[in-house]
Design brief:
It comes from Pseudacidovorax intermedius. Residues 4-151 form the EVE domain. This is Putative RNA-binding protein with PUA-like domain. InterPro entries: 5hmC_binding, EVE_domain, PUA-like_sf, THYN1-like_EVE. There is one protein chain. 20% of the residues lie in helices and 28% in strands. The protein is an alpha+beta fold. The chain is globular, with a radius of gyration of 15 Å. It contains 4 helices and 8 strands. It has a single domain, classed as ph1033 like domains (ph1033 like fold, Roll). The strands form 2 sheets. A 6-stranded mixed β-sheet has the order 2-7-4-3-1-8. It has a two-stranded antiparallel sheet with strand order 5-6.
């Protein structure tokens, strides 16, 4: 099966591309996903080796900040059981977890590709990230969009 491509949003004060690059094996657990559609992408579609656009969100300058890859299959996200975590879910039980995580391995940092630059690229006109009202933390990226973002990053 050919690799798939994804855009994964992270708030840089929680986990930035620099944090991921500094982590052991440049790999971080992708915790805190609390949207069923994003969880289902992880559970049902994402595979080890898939490409990831590492996107900084909820910050002064949002945008693609690096390239990564999916580094593991899914497992229960332990933050759902931690009452001290902002991602705690009292309704989720260890014998029936609602929320999953997978590991993401940073490959490289890119220059920041902000929303205005991404919107100005004709090849990205249909990219889910750029659609009005899209707030998903994980979205699929087509092979053509992947290639266009990499070309922009290398300009």
């Amino acid at each position: 099966m050919s690799p798939r491509y994804w855009l994964m949003k992270s708030e840089p004060d929680e986990c930035s591309i620099d944090d991921a690059l500094a982590a052991p094996a440049q790999t971080v657990p992708w915790t805190g996903v609390r949207n069923y559609q994003a969880r289902n992408f992880m559970r049902d579609a994402m595979q080890v080796g898939d490409g990831v656009l590492f996107y900084h969100s909820s910050c002064p300058q949002p945008g693609v900040a690096g390239i990564a890859r999916v580094a593991s299959g899914v497992r229960p996200d332990p933050t759902q059981f931690d009452a001290a975590s902002p991602y705690h879910d009292a309704a989720s039980k260890p014998d029936a977890p609602r929320w999953l995580l997978l590991d993401v391995q940073a490959v490289r940092k890119t220059r920041l590709l902000g929303l205005p630059e991404l919107r100005a690229e004709p090849a990205l006109a249909d990219m889910l990230l750029l659609r009005k009202g899209n707030r998903l933390s994980i979205t699929p990226v087509t092979p053509a969009e992947w290639a266009a973002v990499l070309a922009l990053a290398d300009r």
